[in-house]
Each structure stands twice: as C-alpha cells, then as structure tokens.
Amino acid sequence: MSLNFTHDPAARSWVETANDPACDFPVQNLPHGVFSCQGRDASGGVAIGDAILDLLALAKAGVISTEAHPVLEAAAEGSLNRFVAMGNQAASLLRGEIFRLLVLDGAGPNPVRADPQRFIVPSAQAMLHMPLRVGSFTDFMTSVHHVTAARKARPARELNENFLHLPVAYNSRASSIVPDGVAIVRPHGQVREASGQVVFRPTSQLDFELEFGALIGPGNPLGSRVGLDQTEDMLFGYVLVNDWSARDIQIWESRLGPFLGKSFATTISPWIVTAEALAPFRVAPVPRLPGQPAPLPYLDSARHRAAGALDIRLEARLSTRNMRQAGLPPERIVATNLLHCAWTLPQMTAHHTSNGCNLEAGDLLSSGTVSGPTDEEAACLFERTAGTLPLDLPGGEQRLWLEDEDELVITGRAERDGFASIGFGPCGARIAPAR
Q1: CA distances (Å), origin 364, targets 57, 132, 173, 175, 266
Q2: DSSP codes of every residue in 144-158
Q3: pLDDT single digits (tens) 21-37
C-alpha cells in the first residue's frame, strides 16, 4: 500500500472530535466495523471521532460513485466477509470517497455534512458487534521474550530449536471469538493440584495475553503457495487480540498443544484498521542478532527487509472492583511494541500457505503474546508474576492471576513523526464468575 491523500497529516474532519490528537479515529484512520442501534439490525459503519458513519444510509442515499457503490454495499452489510474478500484495492477506492465526505475542506457538495443526522450515529448510541465471521483462527508464538520469560514459572522449558527458523503456531478456536465488552466467564477444566490429585473445577489461574491480529482478505486456492511479497494482497486489516488463557488447565492438558485452556474465549477489537491506514507505520523488521539463523528464502525478500513490519505501541490496563469503587483509574500493567516479535505478519502468512494450506476471507492470524525484554513489557501475568511474585496495584491490592470482576483492556497506537497517529479502539472485557 502506497501513501496517498488519505494520509495527509494536515487533514481535519468536520466531525470535531476526530481532530483531538488523542483520538483513535481521525480522518486518516477510517476503520470498518459492524454496529446496531435500537430498532434496527446490525450493519456496516466507519469510525470517525466519537461517531460512526452509517454506510447503509450512505448506500441508500446514492452519494457514492458508481464504481465504488458495489464495494459500499458489501461494507454496509451486517458481516464484512464479502467486503474483505474484495481486497485492498476495492477498500482503497471506498476509503478515498469516504475521506472526501468526512474531510473538512472537501471540494464540491457534501450531502453527509449537509445532513449529518441522516448519516452520522453517535458511538454512545450504538452497540458494536463482531465485524465478520471468523472461519479459522491461527495463533502464533513469535516473541523470544515471551518464551524465555516463561521459564521463571517452567524452568525446564527451553527455546525450541525451530523457533528462529519458522513462525510456530497452532490452530485455535474461531467460534469463541468475541468483540470488546463481552464478559469472559471463568472456565472450568481439569487441573492437577499440588497434591497430585486431578480434579475438575473453575480455573484459579486465569490470565490474558496481549496480541495483535491480522484479518485475511482474498484467500488462496488449496494447494497454492503465496510468496512473501504477495501476502500484502491478502492482509486486509488489523485488530487487537486478547487470547485469554487458563494456565492451570493449559499446563495439565498441553501435550499436543493448547486446547481447553485457550478455547473458552478470545477477545478482539471490533474495528478493522485497514492495511492502507497503517501504510505510514510500516518499518524494517528488527534485524537478527549475530549468530542467529537468517530466514529461509521463502520468508525473506529485499522488500520485506525494508518495510515488512509494523510499529505499533501496545498497552494493557487492569482495574479491579475495589479500584473502581474507590474511583481509581485503571493501572497500566503492560507497555510493549509489536516490533518485539521475531516474525512479522507477512512472514506468518507466507509460512501458513507454504504447504498449500488455503486461507479464506475473514480468517484471523494472531502474533502470539507481544512481550519485550523488560518486566513492563511482559504481556501476560504468566511472565510477570510466574505464579509466585504478586503484581502490586493501587489501593494495596495484589494479583498473581485475574480475579472475578477484574477488567483488562488492551489498546494500541500507531505513531510516526510527520503523520497523524491512529488507534484501534479498546479490546477489553470484565471477568464473570464461573457458572
């Protein structure tokens, strides 16, 4: 994706809240999602400031060009699978027209600005839904720091020999992916107690994993491979991911890999930030250290070495019931960056298809826990506390693991000098007691 007029850092919107420097959704972002209001079914929208551009209303009004109208119709549906399957060029065409309707100094008549109540919905009046149906979910493990820090709790665990040769992953559960705000029910599972007895009970080691995900647009036919430089045609957009984990269940069951300790829930941010919106924030991946193996040719290219990674700042904040009752703000417990991952999402995509596996529109690929080298960059409690070193919180509370009524919210921010910074909206949930 190349830079164009939609990335102009000087552009401002006539939706005033979009011009706040702290806003996640300036006119340079324009992420897609699905929302509903009282009395109407879910349909597609675009976030702008603290509001939503109603794409269904836009489609009915006929104010978009004939060329872009079929794309608009797909983006206005109650699930965005058909829209993302159209690919980045179609999305770019629609993005340009929406930008012109929302920018402050747009040329020509603007029916949206002339009648905003017809097209603009305050976010406070809307409910956000899953933006599309996720058919398959692949969860990678790409942070060396995550693996090595986990040794505090599991000293026998070593960095696998293959870790720097290929992006390690497992096929996770798509049916339990939910958007921001949906409560996470504490799961039951088999656990081996310290006494050695095996019991079935609610997890006592509920954890989060701060991750970053890509949604596939046009897929590839079964039996075909996708080259590294061609993956950008498949990577449609990006979301924040919280891969909730029940560590006591996970550790006892994991012989072939994660199962019930992971499959009970995964939270994603409901707005899809497009690949084009993130074009200014593409950077060179962090180079390998001396002595580390170079990627094999199918996972390497000059183009990828120049700008195959994304510079995304990621944070997680925790609040407890007592903190909220005392009026205390959520405590930041993680501050990390996607650049800490040893593999990029294009490399993950290329590797995923390297055996002929077919990816489909709406599939989710996640980075795995995005941990860095310091304690504050540890992107899960499993690393931060090792189950024995409590995390101190305001008000005198401590946490080894998440407790009922705790609320964990992940946020992300793309920033670069000379460009408008953009965000992803929240990716969070509150823990509900076991049923």
Answers
A1: 29, 10, 10, 12, 11
A2: HHHHHHGGGT-TT--
A3: 999 999 999 999 999 99
CB neighbour list of residue 31: distance below 8 Å, 6 or more residues apart = 25, 46, 47, 237, 271, 272, 273, 274, 277, 424, 425
CA distance 281 to 272: 16
156 pLDDT higher than 50:
no
| 140 strand-pairing partners | 169
At CA 181, angle to CA 240 and CA 86, rounded to 5? 50
Residue corresponding to tokens 């549906």? 77
Active site residue 188: no
**Active-site residue identified among 146, 304, 351, 352:** 146
Query: Which residue ranges form the domains of the chain, and what is each CATH number?
Result: 5-129 (2.30.30.230), 137-432 (3.90.850.10)
pLDDT of 152 > 70? The answer is no
Residue 243: closest CA among 107, 383, 367, 76:
367
- DSSP bridge partners of 412: 314
d(CA 318, CA 192): 28
Tokens of 203: 């997890």
The three-class DSSP label of residue 300 is: coil
